[in-house]
Protein 1
Amino acid sequence: MAADFQAYFGLPLDEEALNHNHQIIIVASGLDASTERIVAYLSERDIAINVLCFQVFQHGEQQLISRSWLLDPLETQAIASNTRSDGPSEPWNGEFYCSFGEGTTRSWLDAQEFGFICGGGGTWYSKSLKMLAPGDRVWVNIPQQGYVGVGRVTGLATAVADFTVVQNGVDTPVLQAATRGTYHAEHINDPARCEYFVAVEWLQTLPVEQAIKEVGLFGNQNTVCRPTTPKWRWTIERLKERFSLFDKT
């Protein structure tokens, strides 16, 4: 199973970070007022729940299907990534976490050279990138390897087909410049499964071989999240000691 997960999603199956968050998705063809009130009530109390409604329409000899979410799915995913069952929570410290699945699908060397983080293979892995906005600070962890970088976000999440990087002083499509990974190129025309990129100005990075991995550091399978566990606050305090140059650039 771990090999299949790695091959499909381009990142290792990290048992330490598995099952730290869940979402409840109700799939239905319609929604009554009572259920809608219950879902809204639970969501307001930080329960990661949402409803996905499908409808089928007949147009001549064709059948069309539409879908709609009751709540913004990005907000539901944010709640899921911020909710932990193994301890108390506290106000978010303003620092973003990123899980970067380094391997054949994406390359940390590319990310360092061209200034980006990315995720794809499904909306669960790409949608959380939309949490980021220019000016946000993000700490990058490679599952099973450790923390390798901290940077300042300079752009919004962009699909692979539209994302460019600077190569030799020229704006270049990312798939032409970043050639160490595949970046789900086979799904370039599929908005749900293609890779999405966020431009980052690196404040300090490390090669994978020097990644910072210590017992107790925060880890999570979400591509991006806003952790509210005390463990994240402690992790940031520790990382600021280890990334001693991050605020001097």
Protein 2
Amino acid sequence: MKTIKTPKLLAGNEYIKDAIRVVNAAKERVCLMTMIISYDELTKDLIDAIANAKQRGVKVDIAVDIFTYLEIGGNLRFNTSHSQRTRSVELLKKTLKTANIKVNWLGRDTLLILSGRTHCKWLIADNTTYSFGGVNLYGKGVTNADFMLRYDDKDLSDYLMKEYHRIVKAEKTRSKSRSHHFDTSFGRVLIDGGRVSDSIIYRRAKQLVQDAESVVYVSQYCPTGKLAQLLKNKPTKLYFNPWQQSTSMNALFIRISSWRTKLKTDYSRQSYIHSKFIICTMPDGSKVAITGSHNFAGGGVWLGTREIALETDNQKIVEQLESFVVNHLA
């Protein structure tokens, strides 16, 4: 009988350390999908491990959103200048090119800065998948209040490999796919394919919150849209960043959305929240969670971002999310 391991929640630094070990042991495949990445003190060992995997004959696939250049370099030029801020990205490109790894840059043809972004995040090494969290692979991304779930399951790894190729092909044809789902032994994987106003993750979050007795909400942003209205009518613990702890566009967005919704955060720590999950306690006492890359903000729905999330009622996963709240947020 196949032994099924419960997915393990790993905070940013733990995720990097664990992933290095798994990638170093990989024999068949490594697949990375991320929104932001750079070659810096906190990520270089993982990137080197991926490059070494390629050198020993492992098949390596990497896709990165060009939002990397906005976050790290301050602009969206694909061939950006060799400034101090972009040096870590240029070093990344050089390292991967030396290892003969092609990077698929996503989102080059979008007209707006935030529309059409690929916000999904996963790392596959053979049959191990890290996903359903928000960790971006650069210094700040690793040190945020964030995590990834380690999932040891061949079916999930195979499915996300297919999803990877679907996204890369969609970029070449400038197309988007409908949101869809995939069932696993620990819950349902929800995928937003990037179509404007089509988010299975946001729809499911609304349904669960509507039916819940109480809710724990975690995101970098204040909830907006119909979800915000539902949360106002429920006993809810809200953990999102105070606008004073955010910068530039994020601070403005949080300030405006908090003012419009009249929702206040319960978060008072210093670390920047980048994790995104909702835990719903249902009328029968059971708990259901959605965790992944979606910020649960209505804007991401009409902008058409690609997202991934796990919906689960597995008690061991829910308990790990609750422990994350206690240890990092409350």
